[in-house]
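Sequence, please.
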């Protein structure tokens, strides 16, 4: 359906858990999360009803996210059910990749067509630092497993953090020559509790283009990334700039959190609950949420932090 600003809403980002096996500094606090009661979260049945209700309103692309979606014991079954909903043409998963060695193949068989893998650094010590607990080797093994499984073009997402990984822009970009994948640099968003990053950490992602001489401009692919390519590369370089040049005018998405809150806008605290509703009720609630989507998310900067009222692990990115 179309919202009040003429934007066609076709994309649902569905978070299936707030929990994660990593603790990225920009995403969640060190001591994890304040665990919600099981009864507060959407059940699998409610989650599938929410997908059906969204599809009835014209949602055709679904992204499953989290927290880390692959820690959910029922993730394969959930993806298979999602992929069989009428009207859902694409089921994508966003993951930190560490559990892909076991799950890349079953996810593909369940009908997931695309994977976005988050990877901010190729340095094992920096990986441990930024994730607080993770091993780079697990993420790289996950990437290799995904490449072996015949997914459509895999996207590797790196949050660009000044003073942390801006020196790795060229090595991360080089992955597009070595593998058939896209590497996308995403600006760090100032969330409620997203670590103690100083102003220097918040770089506009145009910096990535400046550090990659010879980039060719590519045609847009319908995503929010500006696309480029290194000469001779197999995949694109994408720049995603939610902070320095917001793309709200083209926003085609809504979000549903693991506890069943529809978020019409990532950076607004407005939420409407789906918990406990039947499918008709969910459809009407989703319709109301789409009609209440704001025109834009307001200023975002080091000083003007997101008004989302949640950290990213509780929204899904
Ligand atoms: N655990 C999965 C993962 O890491 O891909 C899915 C959930 S994670 C919240 C989704 C995306 O949000 C990841 O690519 C992560 O890097 C990004 N993210 C989290 N916090 C962010 C922030 N403060 N600014 C920009 N991106 C952020
Ligand atoms: Fe977990 Fe993803 Fe957040 Fe990192 S970015 S803590 S992997 S949810």
């Amino acid at each position: 359906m179309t919202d009040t600003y003429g934007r066609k809403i076709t994309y649902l980002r569905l978070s299936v858990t707030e929990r994660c096996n990593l603790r990225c500094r920009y995403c969640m606090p060190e001591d994890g999360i304040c665990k919600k009661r099981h009864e507060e979260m959407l059940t699998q049945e409610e989650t599938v009803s929410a997908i059906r209700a969204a599809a009835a309103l014209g949602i055709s692309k679904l992204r499953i996210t989290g927290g880390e979606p692959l820690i959910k014991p029922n993730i394969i079954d959930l993806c298979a059910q999602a992929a069989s909903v009428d009207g859902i043409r694409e089921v994508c998963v966003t993951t930190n990749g560490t559990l892909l060695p076991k799950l890349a193949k079953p996810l593909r068989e369940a009908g997931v067509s695309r994977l976005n893998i988050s990877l901010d650094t190729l340095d094992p010590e920096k990986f441990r630092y930024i994730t607080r607990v993770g091993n780079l080797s697990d993420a790289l093994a996950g990437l290799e497993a995904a490449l072996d499984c015949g997914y459509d073009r895999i996207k590797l997402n790196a949050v660009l953090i000044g003073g942390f990984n801006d020196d790795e822009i060229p090595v991360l970009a080089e992955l597009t020559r070595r593998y058939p994948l896209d590497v996308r640099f995403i600006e760090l968003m100032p969330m409620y509790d997203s670590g103690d990053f100083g102003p220097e950490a918040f770089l506009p992602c145009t910096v990535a283009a400046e550090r990659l001489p010879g980039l060719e401009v590519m045609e847009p692919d319908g995503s929010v990334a500006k696309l480029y390519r290194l000469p001779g590369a197999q995949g694109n370089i994408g720049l995603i700039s939610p902070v320095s040049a917001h793309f709200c005018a083209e926003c085609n998405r809504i979000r549903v959190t693991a506890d069943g809150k529809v978020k019409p806008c990532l950076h607004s605290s407005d939420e409407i609950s789906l918990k406990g509703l039947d499918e008709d009720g969910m459809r009407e609630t989703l319709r109301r949420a789409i009609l209440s989507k704001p025109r834009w998310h307001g200023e975002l900067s080091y000083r003007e932090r997101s008004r989302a009222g949640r950290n990213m692990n509780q929204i899904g990115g």
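Residues 11-154+247-314 form a domain with the TIM Barrel fold (CATH 3.20.20.70).
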